[in-house]
Hints:
This protein is of the alpha/beta class. The protein has 12 helices and 19 strands. The strands form 4 sheets. It has a 7-stranded mixed beta sheet with strand order 15-14-13-16-17-19-18, sandwiched between helices. The structure holds S-adenosyl-L-homocysteine.
Amino acid sequence: xxxxxPRLKLQPGGDKxxxxxxxxxxxxxxxxxxAAKALPPGEIVTVIRxxxxxxxxxxxxxxxxxAARLLTRDADRAIDxxxxxxxxxxALKLRDRLIGAPFYRLVHAEADGFPGCTIDRFGDVVxxxxxSAGADRLIEPLVAALDRLxxxxxxxxxxxxxxxxxEGLAPIHHIAKGTLDGAVELQEHGAHFLAxxxxxxxxxxxxxxxxxxLLAARxxxxxxxxxxxxxxxxxxxxxxxxxxxxxLSVDRSQPALExxxxxxxxxxxxxxxxxxxxxxxEFLEQAGGEHRTFDLVMADPPAFVKSKKDFHxxxxxxxxxxxxxxxxxxxxxxxxxxxxxxxxxxxxFRTQVARGLHEAGRSGRILHxxxxxxxxxxxxxxxxxxYLKALLLQVD
Length: 396
Ligand code: SAH
């Protein structure tokens, strides 16, 4: 071994999961001596197996339960701009093949070999979200590698989610290259949308639902459509483009609805598109009181299960949402429901949806059970990173 990085030794037996291909090492699997604890969060280290042989190079964070995130099993590999460039190139090649138009998640963390880091692409604007201390420290060579590969007009560094908090990182938002003026345009399956990437707005776009938006839109022809938790119109506007008679997008965020209305206009569907700013459950209760019904109801809420302790409460919320939504679907109509909760397994989500449907006094059948689009790949050893679950049902 010829590198001079700090070395971290695994406890006896602490290399078991890593030797099976797992990319994380938990703090209790490492010898956390004073020297290890003193390392700065995000330091790149060489992980040493209990028998003294090197395991690989990893991001280290002494303050996180996920203490080490493996970057490569080639322990001597330099982790520099060239390394990052190569990983970016691989990710880009895959997206070119999967999607074609330059609007996608370019890098989806561990599954793309970038532990705790995502990168979204909006044509010539790129947004990097460093959610691990290691990614945070590598921002400079990462920006340089991105710049060399894509020559984007603008590179935004942004992150304010719970993942940063777990790593002991403060929220960040700054522009590493170029400028941002106004919302940026993006395309999905031929539709045009707008995303506001500026500070203070809910940033970005949820590319993970790209294919599900098209899937749901296939049931929108001549339909009256309700798009709950619409954000900036991803589902609703795609449905309008696919021949919906009317679309109502409901969200409690006015700025998100403003972008949704602009997107409807960009797609020439403004005449069939309306928005309402409301709390989703209140909207559903009121629509119930008024016996309002729709041919297609779609609900893509924020995560109801934010941590393991909310599991039961969140499950009940999904069940209630399914019940209230199912009650608004006309006989023979369609219902699309999604969960982006990491801590809600697909089986449990399906169970709650089935119970909600039954509690609404309705029956039906699941036509599609899907997840995130493939520009959000899943590391084979991290099945829990397949956070997005979606069901499309016909309702009797
Ligand atoms: N369906 C969207 C993504 C939804 S993200 C898409 O395709 O892009 C979740 C959305 O729910 C956000 O826009 C947020 O403003 C909205 N939201 C969160 N809580 C809400 C509530 N209680 N009532 C209505 N909208 C809510």
